Amino acid sequence: MTLPVTLTQFMSEQQRLFPGVSGNFTLLLNDIATACKKISHLVNRGDLIGVLGNADSENVQGEVQKKLDIITHDIMENSLRWSGHLAGMVSEEVDAPIQIPSPHSRGKYLALFDPLDGSSNIDVNLTVGSIFSILRCQEGIEPELVEFLRPGVEQVCAGFVLYGPSTMMILTTGQGVNGFTLDQDIGEFILTHPQIRIPVDTQEFAINMSNQRFWQAPIKRYVDECVAGTDGVRGKDFNMRWIASLVAEVYRILMRGGIFMYPYDLRDPSKAGRLRLLYEANPMAFIVEQAGGACSTGRQRILELIPTSLHQRVPLILGSKHEVERVIRYHQE
Ligand code: MN
Ligand code: MN
After folding, report:
1. What is the pLDDT of residues 55-111, one digit of tens each?
2. How far does residue 65's CA lie from ligand 2's centre (Å)?
3. Do 321 and 229 fall into the same domain?
4. Domains: count for the chain
5. Of 149, 165, 193, which closes a domain?
6. How far is the CA of 263 from the centre of ligand 1 (A)?
7. Does a structural domain hold residue 133?
8. Ligand 1 mean position to 246 CA, how many Å?
9. Which one of 73, 97, 110, 301 is least enclosed by Cβ atoms within 10 Å?
10. pLDDT at 267
11. Co-location of 59 and 22 in the same domain
12. Is residue 198 part of a domain?
């Protein structure tokens, strides 16, 4: 009988195989896992403990905050602040980088996170998640803004935890993508989905069709061709999916392929897209590429973008390799 592999055992094994993975890093990941277990518990309890609904506040991006946006941010910040592994943090819910208060020691990593992705889904009991991205920085410094504005290729780790019918963690440290299911009875993430690969071809696309009139020509062409099905140039029928929760969309694509698009649109020319580069697009791009998929704005590889601000938005097209490559080709033509 093979015993289940816990997240901690898995990371210890990675440490042994890849000398670049340090013990501190494993401890940092444990802190993130602990925070996500707490969040999983709260999300699961829902209205029994009064955590659903709106808070009376907006975040820095002018979005109405859910109570759980604030609570989950506090859980992440508090779980990560004291450990000594981080030099600083960035969250979707706050304006500026979070410093590690002295006298706490500072480590050599930066954490960037979206504490509750898809939070507009929480009141209708649909899947939400937490997304995180880890960068390395010089040890012991008090990181300035510029330390966080690193291209996605420099991430040392990215992951997300999905609070769905099961709570799952999807993780990459640059050696493929592995999935862990939270065993609620023992409180451990157990390796259940080793070395996830995204099928290169797909017949599923996900996009918010109500924005169609704002799209640019390459996206219109791609979606028109999908919708035309066997009558069109693609010669096959497609299905459309749209959950409006990035974590849920990416998880589905990891499991069975597909393409997700939140493209550039002309509605508000000041916003390049909808999703945030540092704590949504970059970690998802790292995961998707490590699983054999592709991730682009349509014109540039997401992981090579040089960030200009903490809450910068980008167009995001990700998923099955051949379909993403097709969309990129349509942008070039
Ligand atoms: Mn989000
Ligand atoms: Mn969020």
Report:
1. 888 877 778 899 999 999 999 999 998 888 899 999 999 999 998 877 778 889 999
2. 9
3. yes
4. 2
5. 193
6. 16
7. yes
8. 7
9. 301
10. 86
11. yes
12. no
Q: What is the pLDDT of residues 240-264, one digit of tens each?
A: 999 999 999 999 999 999 999 999 9
Residue 1 has pLDDT above 70, yes or no: no
Distance from Cα 285 to the centre of ligand 1, integer Å: 14
94/20 same-domain check: yes
Q: Distance from the CA of 112 to the center of ligand 1, in angstroms?
A: 12
**E strand intervals along 173-315:** 177-183, 188-193, 204-206, 239-241, 259-262, 275-276, 294-296, 313-314
- On whether residue 199 sits in a domain, the answer given is no
Alpha carbon of 7 to ligand 1 centroid (Å): 24
* Structural domain includes residue 2: no
The 3-state secondary structure of 222-254 reads HHHHHHHHHHCCCCCCCEEECCCCHHHHHHHHH
Co-location of 166 and 29 in the same domain: yes
Q: Which of 7, 4, 50, 1 is nearest to 180 (CA)?
A: 7
DSSP code for 318: E
Ligand approaching nearest to the C-alpha of 246: 1
Nearest listed ligand to the Cα of residue 280: 1
pLDDT in tens, 167-200: 999 999 999 999 999 999 999 999 999 999 999 9
Instruction: Name the residue range of residue 183's domain.
Output: 7-193
CATH (domain of 320): 3.40.190.80
Model pLDDT, residue 256: 97
Same domain assignment for residues 235 and 156: no
Shared domain for 148 and 177, answered yes or no, is yes
Rg of the chain over CA atoms, in angstroms?
Answer: 19
- Are both 77 and 151 inside the same structural domain? yes
Q: Which of 171, 193, 215 is the last residue of a domain?
A: 193
The mean predicted confidence, pLDDT, of the chain is 94
Compute the distance from residue 117 Cα to the ligand 2 centre, in Å. 4
Which band of pLDDT confidence, cut at 50, 70 and 90, is reported for residue 142? confident
Give 207-213 contacts, CB < 8 A, sequence gap 24+: 207/240, 207/242, 207/260, 207/261, 207/262, 207/263, 208/242, 208/244, 208/262, 209/240, 209/242, 211/265, 211/267
- Residue 92 CA to ligand 1 centre (angstroms): 8
